[in-house]
Amino acid sequence: MTRKNHQNQATSWTSGGSFERRSQTRNVQLNTLQIDVLHWTGRAALEIIGQSALGYSFDTLEEGAEPHAFGVAANEFSSATDDLLFLREYCLPTLIKIGSPRFRRFFVDHLPWGKLRRLRDIVDTMDRVTTQIFEEKKKELVRANGASKKQERRAKDLMSILMEANMDAAEDDRLPDHEVLTQFIRGHRMKNLSTFAFAGTDTTSNILSRALDLLSRNPEIQDKLRAEVIQARGDFKDTDTPYGELMSLPFMDAVCRETLRLHPPITFVTRVATEDCIVPLSSPLEGVDGRSMASITVPINTKIFVSIFDINRDPTLWGSDSSEWKPERWLSPLPQALQDAHVPGVYSHLSVNLAVEAFPLLILPSMTFLGGARACIGFKFSELEMSK
Fold this sequence. Notes:
57% of the residues lie in helices and 7% in strands. A hairpin with a 5-residue loop joins strand 2 (277-286) and strand 3 (292-298). It is mainly α and 388 residues long. The protein has helices spanning 3-12, 14-29, 37-54, 69-82, 85-95, 101-110, 114-147, 158-168, 177-185, 193-217, 219-233, 243-246, 250-262, 308-312, 315-318, 336-341, 352-358, 379-387; strands at 268-272, 277-286, 292-298, 303-307. The two termini are 18 Å apart.
């Protein structure tokens, strides 16, 4: 995605952020002593991802507004999947290979299991809404393509940009709908669009709430950040901070990085070895038989748990204060041990300090957004959303 795309999306988020600010300003003016931050950041994050990625408004962000069906489903999705953790981890890989999709759906519909039916209804709601969004967007673009000139189209959301580019392509180069969505979300079916929208909502709202909590517990850092923001706004007091100004706030950047390092929204991931391999260890371990081991043999099909949480807090990499929230650590060279470890992550092929300097608003070298071919494709989107 180009810098211009990010600038356009930052502009498209203005209405979501403005509505939320106005709602919370009214609460303050009415002397409301308590504000449910997670509730409001969740609603705002859903609206931002809706407008910038899908070109769709989920929420007016007004006090007392009726919640959108997708928002309700997204809020319940995590707890519903946690209730079926054993089934998801150990049974689902086998069950999805049995029969046709129609057969499996018939089986789920008739199985008298309340928790499974709850998850079914949540997924159905998310699938129905996102399918409707895609179909409506497609019709709008077809109408615009036939009635207007190309230069009159002003879509800024990711889905419209991708769909427009596909429509403008030569017929031989044009992709079918499911492949367009594959490029957009790395999925294989239209229903995966709901996963993209959910992933961009739940994680961001959680980390935003965590950042606000940490700032409230560290008033000196809060004051320093507020001073930087006030200075940056300058002549923009009555409008939103421009993209360029937002991207040049070093302490804001440090606060975002440190919060995501210490409190990653996803604390661990699982991977399965596709072949027999030997994994070298950074330092020898003593086995149960007393022998020193410098590597571990991992057989094919072994499930591996990767703890993002522990890697991001490893004192041998980050220092003795690795469990403390210190945004200022990102404003000076990071420990040499961290550079030598070559922790996988976004842009991990660069030296740590070079990458931090060259690519503002990137989480380096923590594993919050993973790395390699399966790294989070929305890492920069998430950081920009947090700052905005």
